[in-house]
Batch of 4 targets.
Target 1
Amino acid sequence: MGSRNNTNGPDFILLGLTESEEIPQFLFILFLLIYLITVLGNAGMILIIRLDIQLHTPMYFFLSHLSFLDLSYSTVIIPNTLANLLTSNKYISFMGCFTQMFFFIFLVVTEFFFLSSMAYDRYVAICNPLHYHVFMSRRLCYALISVSYIIGFTQSLAIVLCISNLHFCKSNVVYHFFCDTTPILALSCTDTHGTEILAMSLAGLNIVGSLIIISASYVSILSNILKINSTSGKRKAFSTCASHLVGVTIFYSTMIFTYLKPKNSYSLGRDQVASVFYTMVIPMLNPLIYSLRNKEVKNALIRVMQKREGSRQF
């Protein structure tokens, strides 16, 4: 079979999650429900933060961008997965496959640094509350967001260019439900050692580097919380960062499990379950994690609804 690193015609077949004839219908309904909740939750979070002036703070500025990322990278994956579950034609073109890979890597890498920026924001809010608005200036917030996007874009471009220049002549069947790096590398008939080292190094740098920032921030936060005398003060301080800590734990645990391991340890079933979790479940859960125990978001929703009702009556 000749090499297929050209852009003409359908080059890859996304095998999906199962070859059963009955399970795809169930998965379609499940994934569609997850996607609808993801869109409503993240779009709703962005809208509430934009409409309520009391949420125009650095913390919610980062949260609105996190919601945008979650909405974007679930949209990169889920609609195509839903289409494949309904049809027997599971082809994806060479260009379509690597476009999907580019946007997925770009958005996920950006999220690593968004989460570390949010941890730094919580560190300043709890450890230096009197100087919070000085340290977390509008300029710094935009700089942190811009740098995160730039890092994500450059790393994604480097990885996708390396993988797309390989020759694929073993098979055109991708044992996954989207174009991820590991199952695509497995199809190459040329040496992928250099590309694997690049992908693993960047993944390790992103995960470890951002985790160091997050860990250092939370060590300082914990040490400051323990110095607070009143129980209510400790509870209030911890509640401001508990939702972020939960989100970080879920996101990083699945990413470490999936990407910080050699290609030969790839397991089809186990890795697909992990992939479903971080591409579909986490983007759905994040708006719930950041809003259910957050009185500010709940109060903002009430204010937005009351303002809407008031404008209708007027």
Target 2
Amino acid sequence: MEPGNETRLSTFLLLGFSEEPELQPLIFGLFLSMYLVTVAGNLLIILAILSDAHLHTPMYFFLSNLSLMDICFTSTTVPKMLVNIQTQSKAISYAGCITQMYFYLLFGGLDNFLLAVMAYDRFVAICHPLHYMVIMNIWLCVQLVLVCWVISVLHALLHSLLVLQLSCTHLEVPQFFCELNQMIHSACSDTFLNDVVIYITVVLLGGGPMAGILYSYSKIVSSIRAISSAQGKYKAFSTCASHLSVVSLFYCTGLGVYITSPITQDSHSTATASVMYTVVTPMLNPFIYSLRNKEIKRALKRFLGRKA
């Protein structure tokens, strides 16, 4: 989409889920509810952690960052969709589409890297408990989050700049947001470089964190099996059960969408599948942590009781 190229479009049309007018109020209400629950739930997790001195530890420092990223991740796509439904318009400007795609990649990447960092934190806590506070000091925690930001910013910027070099003849994007693959598939110019970069980054930036998570949990399982008492095993496993649930949800929904999207040609099915990791996963994360983590439960009760 080269500057000055006559084939470059000023607007795109986000097809979304359904063109049936009678379904629009239902879709609007459903997504508004899910968005408000996502923001409120993740915000409560952040405020509960900030208000409780007992939770000022590396594990909850990373969790508060993850909750913040979930808010930003959902806010990248859902508000624009709600505005479009309310105004009965499917249009998004060219600049708005590129900007949305950039921030979607940025916050999605940060979620991915933060889950890997949290797995490393659990690995150190369970496999090296005596050295945990020495290894996971505040400076290392900040540096790990900064590295996540730098890699995610560069990754999102790389794809955005490559998309800017494409020319496009197709107005319609079969999604409710500007998703990278759909943007590339709508181009009429050669997308070989874009496809190669996507495959490389998926392997390195997707497979790398996943491999790190799998390695960390293989060591964690080995350490837990070496614990003699059943109570000790349960206590050790309970500290990483919430994280393991969130990791499973994040990767299973993400992989499910990208495995099934080339198979199905139905744009509405693709958009519906994308909801799982763009909206549902960030919405469920606070519930997973608050239901399975006693410390978060206590912190939320104290925080809400203080405000009552």
Target 3
Amino acid sequence: MSDIRHSLLRRDALSAAKEVLYHLDIYFSSQLQSAPLPIVDKGPVELLEEFVFQVPKERGAQPKRLNSLQELQLLEIMCNYFQEQTKDSVRQIIFSSLFSPQGNKADDSRMSLLGKLVSMAVAVCRIPVLECAASWLQRTPVVYCVRLARALVDDYCCLVPGSVQTLKQIFSASPRFCCQFITSVTALYDLSSDDLIPPLDLLEMIVNWILEDPRLILITFLNTPIAANLPIGFLELTPLTGLIRWCVKAPLAHKRKKKTPLANGQVTAKVPKDSGGAERDSRLLYSKLHLSVLQVLVMLQAHLTEKNLYGRLGLVLFDHMVPLVDEVNRLADELNPLNASQEIELALDRLAQALQVAMASGALLCTRDDLRTLCSRLPHNNLLQLVISGPVQQSPHTALPPGFYPHIHTPPLSYGAVPAHPAAHPALPTHPGHTFISGMTFPFRPIH
């Protein structure tokens, strides 16, 4: 690598960047012939940092800066390289070498250039770059994934009105990237503050994507070998948890956004000029999204069974439901004096439906006692109470056919005031057990 470095030092910035990609292409192509997963050592990464990200190797040296035209030319060189390289394994390892965070001072330059490269790939529909970015999102800590998501949202949903149409078109070009992008933006926009409510254009695009093909949000799960323990701090296999958070918190978050505290502690309503139409649009979009998420959860049961993961792998983690319930409870406490009973009821209804269907499909694995304890802190809601009570269970020692709750669920409390031993009260009829039959249509209407 030292000989390559000396030759690159004699070139201008753009020529050096192009040549380093050429040398590393040869290097990794050779490595891949002897090992299916070659280790990226320090040498190639240092060359990329010095000649692509312009981070000097010598201490105290001033970093070089490309002007805007040079940076655009560099992005074009990189886009063309990934488009012309026909071997996916070589593309992936070069992309990983370029943009995997190293925990050093080059990471800011690395992330900035990555955001611009993926944004350009969206604009000119460079599918190989989008596919590499999808893999990068899958194996990179979430703190970096949300930075890429924010760069794309800024470029296509905030800066130029109407540019979201360009982003919409990648749905058919790279569904895998779209799935990872949705997971990233649901991690970014958690509705914890008014600034973290997803923009309407972004919401509409994601809802339309999912309506067109609900399986989109399962692509990563369906095409990924499942490890015994999913790594902590990375994106989830599906955006289901994030989408459930959006649907449940949206009524409360938008109600909070319309209120602003005054100096004397009173509250007044904020009514933006275009709030009426935008609010109606967002309500309808969240309603459609909620129904789509429930339909995907039902669909998920068959896939879990096919992969022999039914009752063994939870794609909607109980540990992620705990903070969601805490946030809903906090928002309900904040908004209760503000006549937000309808919004609170809607949020709790959606939470109840999501919990019910997630448990029935095997996506959410938890005991009924855990669920009762978790939801006990929430305001009363009739539908939620039914979900907490749940259907009568069969013995956990018998075989579990698809359509029943996973065997790890504990038997629920009996309905109403019926005692646990009905024989002591023969006058009271017992209630029959109910099972969730996946082939049946939903016995409820979507909540609007």
Target 4
Amino acid sequence: MQRGKWVSQTLLMEFLLLGLGDARELQTPLFLLCLATYTVTMVGKILIIVLVVRDPHLHTPMHFFLMNLSGLKTCYSSTIPPRLLASFLTGDTTISVQGCMAQFFFFGTFATSECYLLAAMSYDRYLAICQPLLYASLMNWKVCLQLVAGSWVAGPLISTGITSFISHQRFCGPSATDHFFCEEAPLLELSCSDTGMIRILIIILSFPDVVFPFLFTLASYVCIIAAVLRIPSSMGRHKAFSTCSSHLTVVIVFYGTLIIVYMLPRTVPLRQLNKTVSLFYTVLTPLINPLIYSLRNREVKEALGRVLRRPAACTDSSNQVWVSGHKSGSPAN
């Protein structure tokens, strides 16, 4: 009884995120850098969503998936950077246990949903290149909605299980974690419960979480590359590959950083590298995605050009109306 009372009294109520270091002179530059990155990321994502919704030329399955990926990335980008900006601005690096679990849940939710959405997009590109004659019938709007809905639902379902396991751990000290957000491995290092079983359960859940969608995406692109290489003309190969190059680049960046972060051993010499790569895939990767799609996707560039030309055309039209009206209303000499 006495031991149980002592444990309950020493349970942690908050964690201390050591973040990117205690260098005070770097707080302002890091704040400005993260603020600029976050702002550009949000503007880029919202711009892609608006373009797809407003431009009839982008009402295709591929751009419907792209719009949902941008919406997903908008949510994903809002789980960590706002808290990071607040810590840079105020110097307060503490986070409550409940807040930490909420951040962990939403980050895991959107990361898992992105894995499934990238897999759905790879299936779309597979049908477009390997089954072009059947594409319209196989990738109809009903299938698109089902794939997108499944991606959005898979994230919270899997993340709920992992978050539930971790939230039932006892955290009774130390309270400091050498990271800038609440992640699975640093949290388990702070647990004073037996983590053997939960580590096994997390490995099991990682298969539907990351491994299965990754293998599906990988298999899709193996088939796509094989089909592209069978095209006799170099012009045909370039045209076919250009339809999926943007998505392939996003997949490589996303899974590449994810594999580096979670496959690196958590030793002291590699801890700083782990945090740097984590910063890349949580803050910088969402910034890169809209740039990739805007620079490498011809339809998106053309839609952006039409939107930018429209205000100028309206302005010229208004000026012509005003000039003609002014001339017609002027008195005759």
